[in-house]
Design goal:
heterodimer, A: about 450 residues, 2 domains, eleven-stranded mixed β-sheet, two-stranded antiparallel ribbon, B: about 210 residues, alpha/beta, five-stranded parallel β-sheet
């Protein structure tokens, strides 16, 4: 019983030590060099969580032109657009520029970075989870929202506008690992209904040849089949579009008539021409990550942004601190609980030893008669206290790490954050010392009592 | 090898008890007889060094017992004196053989399991060596007590009412065994008792 109590108290403290360590590490590392995040009006915390840590939904979209001035500001070193919306089997497809990859100092483990929209570079963890579906050269489709496997849902899957895997990143230990990255303009193409055009273009003979060279031998059979499919879709779309021409006033008719009888071997300028057709008011992004050139930018940029009623500027450091404070008070409470249980377990070790002495009084007198000295008996009881603590500690170590393992599995599924359950920290070593000291102190009084046993009177009882 | 002179003792604020002088050689067996409450157990505890006399001297194996203190007394007692108690008490969590081996360890510092087994066999307990002590009968328990007291071949064996809790038959068995193993190791045997059944087994008697 005493062992169990001690184990519980120690477990709580261990789990907290580990969690705190990993949370700190995760949140400090992902900030990289981001000084400011610009996004749609809403909670700044939500903006930072969604656009920097890629947890939580974004606050909305913003127009590219509304924050274009930031890039040109003399105090700004650079900006990176972020576009969030699609996902692949719960992993986010994030539209951005290659600067995002450089910012996190990520390296390619194979393939290359994208050079046009609709090409994706896959993060290490995502690739590990779907090594076959995300091989170089494979096509994937995206869907809306976060957290649902949308290959089964038909409404929102953008079947007609597949992305192509062109690169795979090495593990970085940052949020990158859990993302699929592409050019931020891909989402404009996907949502403009021209997605098929882009895929059509990628299906030109030259592209198929170059893909084959990259060892995706299976592509050949696939690609012919898919070209077939694309043509069918294309024919269908043309009819649909002509019918719905009146409803969707965004699309110019003349482009669609051009699609009929399109020559397969046209050179790839089509992405640009598609992009040209997208009206300015449809050029949206989710957020803009900003890096200052010098600290004076802080005086100007956020104000300029906030003056626009549809935008907000969030400071990632401030928001992170705010969030850690919230989490902190939770952790502090749990800490207190842990110490409290430890205290109770110390008391229970004491009680266990003390009461056992009552029954073992005779035993102690017995071994004294047989030649054991007072010190020996003292040491014996003390040793029992230490043993109880040691057992409690080992138990706690196993239980808490197993618990972390289970929890990290859950976190993995929901947030793609990998908590390492088997990381051992130095603090755990100190905790062993603490446990042993607690055991020794609890055992002290019973040990002294054993030391002072009067053999004669005990035997006479 | 044992010599008592001029011993007196009193428990806190109780009457002073005086004990007769006596002496025995190595290997002799004797009874110390008296009715309950006359100080038999007290005398035994004095000889074993568990309490100190108010006056007088107790010499065991040429050592002044009342002069020894602390761990020296514990050591001396462990190697030279074997004690058998009235009600057999053991370390409950240990088995029969382990209790006897523990006595070896505490008394002489070494362990000789075969020797312990031989002694237990002599006492008719060969088949009970690995039993839990709590599973034994009263007679068997008392025999384990004897083994425990004698395993270090002590110079002096003190037995406090060893047969009072036993029936006639077990009493006979235990007392015969006790005499025999004491002879085997040439120990001096001092039995403190009010059990009149023992009178016929011993020649030398001391009355309190």
């Amino acid at each position: 019983m005493a062992v169990l109590l001690m184990a519980s108290g120690l477990s709580i403290v261990i789990v907290l030590i580990l969690t705190q360590g990993q949370i700190d590490e995760k949140f400090k590392n992902n900030l990289a060099e981001i000084d400011l995040v610009v996004g749609a009006k809403g909670s700044p915390l939500q903006l930072v969580l969604s656009s920097v840590y890629h947890i939580d939904n974004p606050t909305g979209n913003i127009h590219l032109d509304s924050c274009a001035f930031v890039k040109d500001h003399p105090f700004v070193a650079g900006t990176i657009p972020i576009s969030i919306g699609d996902n692949f089997n719960t992993y986010r497809i994030v539209g951005t520029t290659v600067d995002y990859i450089t910012m996190y100092k990520a390296k390619l483990s194979s393939g290359k970075l994208w050079d046009k929209p609709m090409q994706v570079v896959v993060g290490a963890n995502v690739f590990e989870k779907y090594p076959n579906k995300l091989k170089l050269g494979k096509r994937i489709t995206g869907g809306h929202g976060i957290g649902n496997d949308l290959l089964d849902e038909h409404d929102h899957a953008h079947d007609a506008s597949p992305y192509e895997v062109v690169g795979i990143l090495e593990r970085t230990g940052r949020v990158l690992d859990n993302l699929i990255l592409c050019d931020y303009r891909s989402s404009w193409i996907v949502h403009s209904g021209h997605g098929d055009q882009a895929s059509f273009e990628l299906k030109s003979k030259e592209d198929v040849e170059s893909i084959k060279k990259k060892d995706s031998v299976e592509m050949e059979g696939d690609s012919n089949l898919m070209v077939q499919k694309e043509i069918e879709i294309l024919d269908n779309e043309s009819e649909e579009i002509e019918d719905s021409a009146q409803k969707t006033n965004d699309h110019g008719h003349h482009h669609h008539h051009e699609h009929h009888g399109h020559n397969h071997s046209d050179k790839p300028l089509n992405v640009d021409s598609i992009l040209e057709t997208i009206p300015e008011n449809r050029k949206e992004i989710t957020a803009l990550l900003v890096k200052y050139k010098n600290q004076r930018a802080q005086l100007f940029i956020p104000n300029a942004i906030n003056r626009n009623s549809s935008l907000i500027a969030a400071d990632p450091d401030i928001e992170r601190d705010r969030m850690l404070k919230l989490v902190d008070s939770g952790i502090q409470t749990a800490n207190l609980m842990g110490y409290f249980v430890l205290l109770i377990s110390a008391i229970s070790v004491f009680i266990a030893l003390f009461s056992s002495l009552k029954d073992r009084g005779y035993e102690i007198a017995l071994i004294r008669v047989q030649g054991a000295s007072r010190f020996k008996v003292f040491g014996m009881i003390l040793g029992e206290g230490l043993l109880l603590s040691l057992l409690g500690y080992i138990f706690a170590l196993i239980v808490s790490h197993l618990g972390m393992w289970v929890v990290s599995g859950i976190l993995e599924n929901n947030y793609h954050y990998d908590f390492n359950a088997w990381d051992f920290s130095l603090l755990e070593g100190y905790l062993l010392l603490v446990a042993l000291i607690i055991g020794a102190i609890s055992a002290l009084i019973p040990a002294i009592k054993a030391y002072r046993t009067d053999i004669s009177s005990t035997l006479s009882k | 090898m044992i010599e008592i002179q001029n011993i007196s003792f009193s428990y806190k604020e109780q009457e002073v008890m005086c004990f007769p002088d006596f002496a025995f050689h190595q290997g002799e067996h004797a009874l110390v007889i008296g009715s309950s409450g006359c100080g038999k157990t007290t005398l035994l505890h004095l000889i074993a060094g568990l309490i100190s006399p108010a006056t007088g001297s107790i010499k065991v194996a040429n050592t002044e017992v009342s002069g020894l203190s602390g761990s020296k007394m514990d050591d001396f007692r462990g190697s030279n004196i074997g004690v058998i108690f009235q009600k057999p008490h053991f370390v409950k969590s240990l088995r029969v053989i382990e209790n006897v081996v523990l006595a070896q360890n505490l008394g002489s510092g070494t362990i000789d399991k075969p020797q312990a087994e031989v002694l237990l066999s002599k006492l008719g307990l060969a088949h009970k060596i690995n039993e839990r002590v709590t599973d034994l009968s009263e007679g068997e328990k008392q025999r384990v007590s004897i083994a425990r007291a004698l395993v270090n071949k002590p110079k002096l064996i003190l037995a406090d009412e060893p047969t009072s809790a036993l029936d006639d038959e077990n009493c006979k068995i235990v007392i015969e065994l006790l005499k025999q193993v004491s002879e085997d190791s040439n120990s001096t045997l001092l039995i403190v008792t009010h059990d009149s059944r023992l009178k016929e087994h011993f020649g030398k008697k001391i009355e309190l």
